[in-house]
Task: inverse folding
């Protein structure tokens, strides 16, 4: 099993290109786009959404392009042409506003909050929605039911599923029994619902367990993003007394790598303001309560308090946090909540921050850490094994329950002549950012070995 990413040296890059060509000649690739179609109706783009989209973009632009796209069907998968997949990507980007096509109300609200105004935090103006809900439903339905009649997945294909969407419904994968020529490859982001079920909604552990059953039953190879998760998947196979499959570890690159920059006129309000940014869904595992407690302490001390910008949708079992964000007048002036931002706007927000904060109790990767370090912005994050791996030791690591150390670090980073900030900034220059080009070269090389 491959438990470490392949080297990015010139020699290894050349080897990857050779193996990639071999992979292209041996097996067609079929990408499952069910998750992307489902996410068309959601405005808050998650890390998994961005990775799914990165795969779709790459495979459509590949030479030759992806053989086909597929969507779950009741009895067998529906096959979509490469042209339909390109259309799906265009619709997804427009709905999610991945490309800058106007200024979303979230950015307008952020600008107002930075200037001291208090507009509604989570209101999304109707004008920022590119589609009416009726049209969006029609578009989604089209991708779900309009497909190439009579078409089937090409022989000897690699069936690639990135998001593990609806894996708990085993019937969507029963067709694999009739197609032993197809090689199912799944990307496993983490197994946290099995390891720390207390951080997830009631009943989710059982549901996720069924997803893992699908993966270990049908996968002939697994891709993951960290050695920590790869070792955990190995354990799952061993505990179930199943023969292991090849596991390839490939660290994800920053989804902001290829995003554009917004002009200075739109981002100028970020200059000269002291603020920190935290990027994640608001739910117990992410430990937002620690950050809110720290900001309360900073406010009570009566000194110049930096702003905290939380970028992420509201999740589950965090009602106390939601109440504080909505009702606490002291926090209202200093803590800003934004459900999501287009890539170019998020890039600008990170680039002007004092630091990225990520106080999670458990993670499978840590994409915001890669995004910040790739932009040479200091990172303060939890001292957990996967963050040590993902940050390459270039972040300030603090235990997630050590509130005093977190407070001291944030206070130090807020100082105009912060020594700690200079030290952390120097560390970011030593970070070796994963790139999407190397990522997909190595994935293709892995396919070539299957």
Result:
């Amino acid at each position: 099993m491959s438990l470490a990413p392949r080297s990015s040296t010139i020699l290894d890059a050349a080897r990857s290109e050779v193996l990639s060509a071999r992979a292209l000649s041996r097996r067609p690739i079929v990408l499952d786009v069910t998750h992307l179609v489902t996410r068309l109706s959601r405005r808050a783009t998650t890390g998994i959404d961005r990775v799914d989209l990165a795969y779709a973009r790459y495979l459509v632009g590949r030479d030759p392009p992806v053989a086909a796209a597929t969507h779950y069907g009741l009895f067998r998968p529906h096959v979509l042409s490469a042209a339909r997949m390109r259309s799906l990507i265009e619709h997804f980007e427009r709905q999610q506003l991945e490309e800058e096509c106007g200024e979303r109300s979230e950015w307008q609200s952020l600008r107002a909050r930075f200037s001291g105004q208090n507009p509604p935090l989570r209101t999304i103006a109707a004008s920022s929605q590119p589609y009416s809900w009726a049209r969006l439903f029609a578009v989604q339905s089209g991708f779900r039911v309009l497909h190439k009649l009579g078409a089937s997945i090409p022989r000897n294909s690699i069936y690639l599923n990135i998001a593990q969407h609806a894996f708990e419904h085993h019937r969507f994968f029963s067709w694999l029994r009739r197609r032993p020529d197809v090689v199912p490859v799944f990307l496993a982001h983490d197994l946290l619902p099995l390891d720390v079920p207390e951080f997830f909604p009631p009943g989710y552990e059982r549901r996720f367990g069924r997803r893992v059953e699908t993966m270990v039953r049908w996968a002939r190879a697994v891709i993951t993003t960290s050695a920590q998760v790869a070792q955990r998947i190995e354990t799952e196979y061993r505990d179930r007394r199943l023969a292991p499959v090849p596991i390839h570890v490939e660290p994800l690159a920053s989804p902001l790598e290829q995003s554009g920059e917004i002009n200075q006129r739109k981002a100028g309000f970020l200059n000269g303001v002291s603020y920190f940014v935290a990027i994640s869904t608001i739910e117990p595992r992410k430990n937002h309560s620690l950050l809110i407690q720290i900001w309360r302490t900073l406010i009570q001390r009566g000194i110049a308090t930096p702003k905290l910008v939380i970028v992420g949708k509201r999740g589950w079992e965090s009602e106390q946090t939601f109440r504080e964000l909505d009702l606490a007048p002291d926090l209202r002036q200093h803590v800003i909540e934004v459900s999501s931002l287009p890539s170019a706007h998020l890039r600008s927000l990170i680039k002007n921050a004092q630091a990225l904060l990520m106080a999670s109790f458990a993670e499978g990767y840590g994409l915001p850490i890669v995004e910040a370090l790739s932009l040479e912005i200091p990172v303060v994050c939890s001292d957990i094994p996967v963050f040590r791996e993902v940050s390459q030791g270039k972040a300030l690591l603090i235990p997630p329950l050590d509130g005093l150390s977190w407070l001291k670090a944030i206070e130090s980073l807020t100082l105009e002549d912060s020594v700690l900030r200079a030290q952390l900034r120097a560390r970011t220059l030593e970070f070796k950012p994963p790139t999407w080009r190397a990522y997909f070269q190595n994935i293709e090389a892995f396919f070539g070995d299957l």
In short: The longest helix spans residues 10-26. The two ends are 12 Å apart (CA to CA).
